[in-house]
Amino acid sequence: MEEDNRNFYISVFVAICLTMLLTLIPIWQLIIIPGIIAGMINKSLKHGVLSGFLGVTLSWGLYILIGTISRNVYALLDQLGGLIFGEGFGWAFIVLILLLAAIFGAIGGGIGNGLMALIKMYLEKHPSRDSNAE
Q1: Is 133's pLDDT higher than 60?
Q2: Cα separation of 48 and 116, whole Å?
Q3: Rounded-to-integer distance, Cα 119 and Cα 96, Å
Q4: How many domains does the chain have?
Q5: Are 56 and 17 in contact (CB under 8 A)?
Q6: Is the distance from CB of 98 to CB of 64 less than 8 angstroms?
Q7: Of the candidates 99, 9, 11, which has an alpha carbon nearest to the alpha carbon of residue 52?
Q8: CB atoms within 10 A of CB 25
Q9: C-alpha distances in angstroms, 17 versus 2, 77, 81, 93, 116?
Q10: What is the pLDDT of residues 5-47, one digit of tens each?
Q11: Host domain of residue 115
């Protein structure tokens, strides 16, 4: 149990760091990659999905917070909300951004954990080629 918790915390930290790096790239759909890597680190599907979810969501939340404080991003989101819904709906876009981050992170964590399960099954069925060479 101790190793599972340690892997979970490590995977959340890795997902946060990778997400922060990938936010510098203008292709935001690549944000699923940190979730996949976080899911690969964990042994259980629950921890894989949760680590991808937390890592990507916390990273994007921190990015929004920094943007709101330093570059006044909320004013831009509020203007966009005013165009679509009416005055004072900038918070709806923040919720939408965090919801997309949560969905992409959780799906990535599930995909990564599933990939590791498939890789482990393949390695169990096909023994190492080094042992056959002898």
Answers
A1: no
A2: 10
A3: 34
A4: 1
A5: no
A6: yes
A7: 11
A8: 10
A9: 23, 25, 30, 24, 21
A10: 999 999 999 999 999 999 889 998 899 999 999 999 999 999 9
A11: 2-123
Kindly list the distances between the CA atom of residue 87 and the CA atoms of 15, 37, 53, 98, in Å, as whole numbers in the listed order: 35, 40, 31, 21
**106: which 2 tokens?**
């959780």
Does residue 102 belong to any structural domain of this protein? yes
Is there a contact between 72 and 56 (Cβ–Cβ < 8 Å)? Answer: no
Residue type, 113: N
CA-based nearest residue to 18, from 47, 60, 46? 60
Tokens of 1: 């149990």
- Average confidence (pLDDT) over 86-111: 93
Residue 131 lies in a domain: no
For the record, the structure tokens of 102 come out as: 């949560």
